[in-house]
Design goal:
6 helices
């Protein structure tokens, strides 16, 4: 059975992806070999159409992992929160959104998680007898988390409005008899 050109290309791409994954594992340590880091850079530059960088967590995904790891909750609860975050991003349309919207959706979801974690801590602290200074600290922290979440949602809404509500291009065409017709595209 002969291998088609498409199959040969797909096989080569799979080999490149596998080598990239191996290099990422090898360099994922405190002091990786400089040659391995250069090899990753060369692979990313030499195979731009493969978008190899997508195989590695984005900074936003990494931040989300850290926030979840640092949350004071049982592992099963954290796992549920991970799935809730995925559902939230899906509900906000991350799968079909352009790259910028995806980043803003991720940011809004992360701010939502942080807001809720601060809200939990705030509620726990406020149940106790606390000093005025500590009360003010937690009020400010909660207010800041709420503000960040609100701004992330507003930014997402603004970008969506700007990208989807572009005004139609309008043409004015003169017809016979001097009649003007407006066409929108």
């Amino acid at each position: 059975m002969a291998i088609t050109t498409e199959q040969a290309i797909a096989k080569k791409e799979d080999q490149v992806r596998l080598k990239f994954a191996e290099l990422v594992v090898r360099t994922n340590k405190e002091s990786p070999r400089a040659a391995d880091v250069r090899a990753i850079s060369d692979m990313l530059n030499g195979n731009e159409s493969l978008e190899l960088w997508r195989a590695v967590h984005s900074a936003g995904q990494f931040a989300e992992m850290i926030v979840l790891e640092d949350a004071s909750a049982m592992p099963a609860i954290k796992e549920c929160w991970k799935h809730r975050m995925q559902a939230l991003r899906k509900h906000l349309g991350a799968g079909d959104a352009p790259m910028l919207e995806q980043r803003l959706i991720q940011q809004a979801a992360l701010c939502w998680l942080r807001l809720n974690l601060v809200e939990i801590r705030y509620s726990t602290v406020m149940k106790q007898s606390i000093t005025l200074t500590l009360g003010i600290y937690w009020e400010k922290r909660l207010t800041a988390a709420q503000r960040r979440f609100t701004r992330a949602c507003e930014s997402l809404a603004r970008i969506r409005k700007l990208s989807r509500n572009t005004p139609a291009l309008q043409f004015n065409i003169a017809t016979q008899g001097g009649q003007q017709v407006n066409l929108a595209k």
